[in-house]
Amino acid sequence: AGFGPFGEHAVNASWIAVQELEKLGLRDDVDLHVYEVPVEYQTVQRLIPALWKKHSPQLVVHVGVSGMATTVTLEKCGHNVGYKGLDNCRFCPGSQCCVEGGPECIDSIIDMDTVCKRVSALGLDVAVTISKDAGR
């Protein structure tokens, strides 16, 4: 899933990247589903669980954009608390949580250090780094 436009990002590069992946495809035995996710807290809370229920995926990759990143950044965890910014509907949860009662952090079960090393070893002209803070 790539995200839609928000803030100064009139076009969200994450959505462009996901569309390109859809054009290229993966292997024939991979059932790839691509979605543009609106940058709206309440929509995400409804849409993502509905997509999980509909597709029962083995792997979900959320692709985002950062105005500060200078590399492809693999996130080790996503945070639930500390959200103070308004979404595209000018809404922010009063609790500053994405999911009420949810865990403070969700750690990826994928070994991002190994992924980073393997991608770097391919010799592509792409810098890849690891992050423990996906931001808010």
TrEMBL record:
It is found in: Cytoplasm. InterPro entries: Peptidase_C15 (IPR000816), Peptidase_C15-like (IPR016125), Peptidase_C15-like_sf (IPR036440), PGPEP1_Glu_AS (IPR033693). The keyword Magnesium does not apply. Coiled coil: none annotated. Gene3D superfamilies: Peptidase C15, pyroglutamyl peptidase I-like. Keywords: Cytoplasm, Hydrolase, Protease, Thiol protease. Its EC number is 3.4.19.3. Removes 5-oxoproline from various penultimate amino acid residues except L-proline. Belongs to the peptidase C15 family. This is Pyroglutamyl-peptidase I. It comes from Piprites chloris (Wing-barred manakin).
